[in-house]
């Protein structure tokens, strides 16, 4: 059901954990497979210098989180907002149709974390 790339990602997921002094945190979830994804971003001068995630959910959600963090580290927040679930699916070499929503979660988690960052910036 899962591509080789997903299996590799699941056996060695990248950027698992949390960032204690994160500049932006996004938490999203979906009801269909009960996934909860929390994304932590460290941002300096609008560039994402570090990203970590904590995901409780199915394999597709965990693999999506892992590649999403890898895709956005080093990007500006504007570039990171352009990372879509299609990019995540492509990096994972495909997802089963019933698991596409798990990659959408990664896109949403990035957007939520950046929204949180921007809200915090406004308060400064
Ligand atoms: Zn899922």
Uncertain segments of ≥5 residues (pLDDT<50)? none
* Rg, Å, rounded: 13 Å
Percent in helix: 40-55%
Quickly give the CATH architecture: Alpha-Beta Complex
Shape: globular
Mean residue pLDDT: 96
- What CATH calls the topology is Sufe protein. Chain: A
Report the order of strands and helices: HEEEHHHH
Tally of DSSP β-strands: 3
Oligomer description: single chain
Total number of helices: 5
Molecular structure report:
With 124 residues, this protein is α+β, with helices and mostly antiparallel strands. It has one domain (4-123): Sufe protein. Chain: A (Alpha-Beta Complex), CATH 3.90.1010.10. 47% of the residues lie in helices and 20% in strands. Strands 1-2-3 form a three-stranded antiparallel beta sheet. Helix 1 crosses helix 2 (59-72) and helix 2 (59-72) crosses helix 5. The model has no long low-confidence stretch (mean pLDDT 96).
Features:
three-stranded antiparallel beta sheet; alpha+beta; globular; 3 strands
Secondary structure layout:
Elements: H1 4-11, E1 24-29, E2 36-44, E3 47-56, H2 59-72, H3 77-81, H4 85-91, H5 100-123
Antiparallel strand pairs: 1-2, 2-3
The chain binds zinc ion.
Zinc ion (ZN) binds at residues 33, 35, 57-58, 60-61, 99, 102.
Short description:
The chain has 124 residues and is an alpha+beta fold.
């Amino acid at each position: 059901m899962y591509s080789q790339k997903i299996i590799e990602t699941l056996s060695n997921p990248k950027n698992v954990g949390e960032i204690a002094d994160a500049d932006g945190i996004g938490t999203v979830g979906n009801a269909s497979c009960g996934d909860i994804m929390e994304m932590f971003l460290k941002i300096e001068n609008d560039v994402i210098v570090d990203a970590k995630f904590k995901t409780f959910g199915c394999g597709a959600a965990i693999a999506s989180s892992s590649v999403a963090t890898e895709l956005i580290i080093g990007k500006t927040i504007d570039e990171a907002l352009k990372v879509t679930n299609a990019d995540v699916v492509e990096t994972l070499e495909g997802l089963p149709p019933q698991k596409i929503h798990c990659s959408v979660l990664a896109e949403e988690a990035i957007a939520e974390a950046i929204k949180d960052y921007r809200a915090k910036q406004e308060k400064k």
